[in-house]
Model the fold of this input.
Amino acid sequence: MSPRDLLLGGFKAAVAAADPLHIVPQHLPGPPKGRTLVVGAGKAAASMALAVEQQWPAAAPLEGTVITRYAHGLLTNRITVVEAGHPVPDESGEAAARRIFDSVKRLSKDDLLLALVSGGGSSLLSLPVESISMADLKAVTRELLRCGAMIQEINTVRKHLSLIQGGRLAAACKAKILALVISDVTGDDPTHIASGPCAPDPTSYQDASDILKRYECRIPKAVQDTLARGIRGELAETPKPGDKVFAKTENRVIATAHQSLAAAAKFFEVNGVRAAILGDSVTGEAREVAKVHAALAREVKAHGQPWQPPVALISGGECTVTVRGNGRGGRCVEFLLSLVNDLQGADGIHALACDTDGIDGTEDNAGAIAAPDTLARAATLGLRADKLLENNDGYGYFSALGDLVVTGPTRTNVNDYRAILVEA
Done:
């Protein structure tokens, strides 16, 4: 099997390990005495909803609404799938979130709330507090994405501007709650996944304000005023760990990045290549993380330390990109372009970096793939890796080479996946 086929096969194995159609059925409860309401948000929401429909008894009541990203919908019969904006929220998501919130408040103690939570839900499940508008929420989101804030920081702000996130959905519900969660964040803590609509929130209004100040975000006055009122105690805080509102709530993480990395590792090993999992929680600036990975790959190739080649160095997590240029691309192609630039055509080192949701940033690709000849081939086209990196244009670089990885929406999301194959 060629290095390219090995890398693509490992990525496919990682995505398959997080397929909701296989995972969700293992965790479904039996029907309750009363009704079952299904709600959810995230890039995996449609496939999770379909999995519920396929397994739920035909005679048992089932209804609900889930929100997913545009072009991520699926045909369902009993659960309504709504498509909305991501990573910047929009009015479609707001209207659907309001319907979800209102329907949850009508449940009784004999009913069941089945919440389907996955990465991307923070943007999709957007129901701003009364004091701010959707336009205000969009402006704050764009600022936080631009400045390179970590997802946990972005979600801390979102929780304190939302009627539904940060445990507030659970607080509004009288029924028993089971939240099935597909994790796209390092650490797999439900409070950070889709901003934890059914999970306790340990953060505060003060934390949210401090984050915006730290990154020098330009935010609307209505948002400043809302956070200031919360800090003064004029607005209720999000429910905290230990709050009685969570007495009948279970947040169950059913798919993680590490499970997907393990599946990829098994694929490599079956095909005769040792696999080394470097971690499922790699964070930091994508271009800087790539330099560390490049150094490790060179050490393996030159000295056989800490692993003898052939070996696949696999990692997950979520890097950040501080946007300085006007190019196109997301975290994965930024990582890969920096890796190519640092390796400078080192012999026998191939790499792939892709987002498991099938969409890297705002483009149409999951990521890209690189080989020892990538730098030289680009040079014949007049492309310099260092210059395009300065412009944050990883998409333009790999698109010109025909080395983008395009899968379409995978309808799951367990964060970024990276693999560096060091040949013997």
In short: The chain is about 40% helix and 20% strand. The two ends are 14 Å apart (CA to CA). The mean pLDDT is 96. The first strand starts at residue 36 and ends at 41.
